[in-house]
Amino acid sequence: MGAVTGVIVMSGIAVALQRLVDLRLGDDAAAVIGSRQAQIENVFYPGFTLSRTKILMAPVDAGIDDGHQYAFAAHSKTLAG
Questions:
Q1: pLDDT in 10s for each residue of the chain, 81 residues
Q2: Which of 11, 29, 41, 71 is buried deepest, with most CB atoms within 10 A?
Q3: Is the pTM of this model over 0.90?
Q4: Which residue, among 14, 34, 26, has the nearest Cα to 69 in the 3D structure?
């Protein structure tokens, strides 16, 4: 049961992070719509590092698909010593 709860909590965190990045990068991403581009960035937050891959592609339909896709991987920070 604990494993299932952990997966649910991590899924919620991933959704929250995706919304945060969408809010931060939405305008920048829209500026390059029409070209295909991929960027890999590391963003540092308290307690962990978010490795973000931003994939920008031309939208299929502006009303359905805004052309932004994000993939996330969160890594816990460890302190030596």
A1: 444 444 445 555 555 555 555 555 554 544 444 344 444 445 554 555 555 545 444 444 444 344 444 444 444 444 443
A2: 29
A3: no
A4: 26
Domain boundaries defined on the chain: 2-76
Q: DSSP string of 7-49?
A: HHHHHHHHHHHHHHHHHHHHHHHHHTTTS-EEEEEEEEETTEE
Q: How many CB atoms lie within 10 A of CB 15?
A: 11
Task: Sort strands 68-76 and 37-45 into parallel, antiparallel or unpaired.
Answer: unpaired
CA–CA separation, 14 and 4 (whole Å): 15
Closest CA relative to residue 71, chosen from 48, 38, 44: 38
